[in-house]
Amino acid sequence: LSYDAACQYSVNWLKQISQQFSDLVDFAERVRWAISTLHIKDHKSNCMYMYGMCYKECMGHFHAETVEHFWPTLNQFCKVTRQMTPGHQHDALTAFTNDWNWKKVAGMDTFFLL
Question: Where do the domains of the chain lie?
Answer without folding.
Answer: 6-55, 66-113
